[in-house]
Amino acid sequence: MDWRAESPELWAFLESLRGGEILSGTVTAIERFGVFVALDDGPEHPLYPGVGFISIPELSWRRFDAASDIVHVGQRVSGEFLQFDEWNAEARLSLRATQPDPFHAFAACTVVGQEIHGHVTKLVPFGVFVQVSEGVEGLVHLRDLTSTPVAAPEDIVQIGDEVTVVVTQIDQGNRRLSLSRQAAGQP
């Protein structure tokens, strides 16, 4: 669709937006792929339930199961404008960009070799994820789970288990935290 010709008011509005600008509006629809937002200062979208759109990864820094865990229809939100999606004629927004990144706060007060406590949030074939702080999870690779080799993580831990781990690597650029249960002397 040629949005420029079909909806010149919408196109002009979207072209006027600048990266980093904070836009406010009301959540109008929640889909499995993201959230539509009717922007306060924007025109209506001729096809979608809102001119603003927030993709699932841009909703929050923390792990969640569904977008409805973060927002609900009718909720007022403010998000940072990321880009003008010319294909869909949408303003791509980020809610998490308006919130401090908990990983950076965690990394600022944590060092490699430090022993910390957390709980198992996810089991995967190559290890387990452990939440060590609100919005911060790290991976304990299968080889670092215990001193004796195991075929699957569920042989050692279950989701929800409290564990003690040692920080083995902090990669702030990629937001990755590597942990070892074995180094913490866990059986």
What distinguishing features does this structure have?
single chain; mainly beta; OB fold (Dihydrolipoamide Acetyltransferase, E2P); 5-stranded mixed beta barrel; 3 helices; 10 strands; elongated
CATH homologous superfamily heading of the largest domain = Nucleic acid-binding proteins
List how many beta strands DSSP finds: 10
Domain module tally: 2
What would the principal axes of the Cα set say about the shape? elongated
The fraction of residues in strands falls at: 35-45%
* Low-confidence region ranges: none
- With strands numbered from the N-terminus, the spatial order across the biggest sheet is 1-2-3-5-4
> Treating each run of at least 4 consecutive H or I residues as one helix, how many helices?
3
Largest sheet, in brief, is: 5 strands, mixed, barrel
Residues in helices, as a percent range: 10-25%
Averaged pLDDT:
93
Topology:
Elements: H1 3-6, H2 8-16, E1 22-31, E2 34-39, E3 52-55, E4 76-85, E5 90-94, H3 102-108, E6 115-124, E7 127-133, E8 136-141, E9 162-171, E10 176-180
Parallel strand pairs: 3-5, 8-10
Antiparallel strand pairs: 1-2, 1-4, 2-3, 4-5, 6-7, 6-9, 7-8, 9-10
